[in-house]
Amino acid sequence: MEHTNSAHLWAIPKNSPKKLCLAKGYPYKVPKASYLFRSGKVSDIGEASFRGRMPILAHGSNRAPEQLARKFSDGANEVEIPVTYGWLEDHDVVYSAHVTRYGAIASTLRRVEGCRVRVAVTWLTEPQLARMHVTEGANYPFGRIESVALGLEAGPAEKLDTVFAYHSRHGCLSRAGAPIGLAALEAEGRRHPALPQEAVLALVRDRHHPEDDNLDSHILKNVDDAKRRASLIEKLARDALPNPLMGFHDRPAG
Length: 254
Description:
Radius of gyration: 17 Å
Largest sheet: 9 strands, antiparallel
Order of helices and strands: HEEEHEEHEEEEEEEHHHE
Distance between the termini: 19 Å
């Protein structure tokens, strides 16, 4: 994600194969069940303490242990983050109309009546939330979503009607006038198409850089050239679907 203070962000690999894995692998592998992230490792959720923590919706890479490890790597202190799964009613997770600094097309939440999607909740302390704000940058304003129905599979509550979240300011990537769901996330009642990351990367390449006959080369150019990436984001904005999120109220990240 674009951010003016890149020194405080996690580092992008210099090795091209690793860069490609980072872009193509989004939103990354996750455990099948709720878990406790503990200093880079996955532990049983039964060992988690939820005291003093806020529920932050995670619908993309923040669900994944490897991304949490990148964002919260701290060799001096043990980092614990409970991650619980649940089904969010009348919403879906779709692709945002922008390219991240590491080359992936990231996710955003969209209101979709009759659809339910399996998301995660990261339970963060105030210092952890401050760190997460830095890693999300200006692309994802932070706020509170009210009047939702989120049934949890584990954790301190069976259901949440209010949750905090980051919501993309770029709108939704579109195809034939419809949003595109993340195939990596389980959903029921999804009426629009869903694609895996690599297919969406190819769609963006074909639409805006057809001269790039090699997808890997296209991805690497977007990662290595910030001006090209910014230009591509501007192009994506032209046919992006507006995505105001019902019940979402911005909250200053600080």
